[in-house]
Design a protein that fits this description.
This protein has 206 residues and is of the alpha/beta class. Helix content is 33%, strand content 22%.
């Protein structure tokens, strides 16, 4: 099956934040164009720039598919992330392809809402410190279908000021894991392809 082209939103029309670079977004949306990807799980949406790119690309592929996005959608003072998110999704007509789950990725009710599902692509762009990132990987990667992609943004982030950060969490789980193959890096985004299930002993050791 031929891979469809990635479809990106217009940055000049965007409302709110669109921090991810064009090069990174092109490569990211390109994953959603892969025939192995029917549904996408996104952890961290902010104002929906990557969400909309995923939805547009899935629509263009002709395979259908939906984007499930988990975010707190903060509303404090003048900040209203959900208003921007909803406006951007509506501007591109992709609301029906997007499911919003409000909350933190480790909340029991969020994990319960995701339980039993399978995704062809998981994109993580939320926490950037060691323990939360490793926790998310361990919780979410069983939801990834074999042949699918697990990709994380900000693989360069030492913001916690510690020796252990997002980088170490990613390296600990994925590198040397026979269930995953490193597919490459674009900017600060890394991607791994799932070949099979992670050995139980390896998961237990983490």
């Amino acid at each position: 099956m031929t891979r469809a082209a990635a479809v990106l939103p217009d940055r000049t029309r965007w409302q709110g934040s669109s921090k991810i670079s064009d090069v990174e977004l092109q490569a990211l949306a390109g994953l959603a164009a892969d025939p192995a990807v029917a549904n996408v799980l996104e952890i961290g949406a902010l104002h929906g720039f990557s969400t909309v790119a995923f939805a547009l690309t899935l629509a263009a592929s002709g395979r259908g598919g939906r984007v499930t996005t988990v975010d707190m959608f903060q509303k404090t003072g003048d900040r209203d992330d959900e208003r921007f998110f909803d406006a951007n999704c509506a501007a591109y007509g992709v609301e029906t392809r997007i499911e919003k789950i409000r909350g933190f990725s480790n909340e029991p009710r969020v994990l319960a809402a995701l339980a039993g599902r399978r995704f062809g692509l998981i994109f993580h762009d939320a926490e950037h410190t060691y323990r939360p990132v490793l926790r998310d990987i361990l919780n979410l990667e069983p939801l990834l279908a074999p042949g699918g992609f697990f990709t994380l943004h900000d693989y360069a982030d030492k913001r916690d000021g510690q020796d252990w950060s997002l980088i170490e969490a990613v390296d600990l789980f994925f590198h040397g894991n026979p269930a995953y193959r490193f597919e490459g890096r674009t900017g600060s985004r890394v991607v791994f392809r799932k070949l099979g299930e992670t050995p139980r002993l390896r998961r237990a050791a983490l």
